[in-house]
Write a structure and sequence with these properties.
mainly alpha
Length: 33
């Protein structure tokens, strides 16, 4: 699985990371509220 992920386009990997960061930020905001 990991090897296949490395072969995939790095751009897709970046978008996935950005989505994860957005989710974590939303969770933090919810916790503060």
């Amino acid at each position: 699985m990991r090897q296949v992920g490395r072969r995939t386009n790095p751009l897709i990997f970046q978008t996935n990371r950005n989505q994860l960061e957005r989710q974590s930020k939303k969770k933090r905001e919810l916790q503060f509220i």
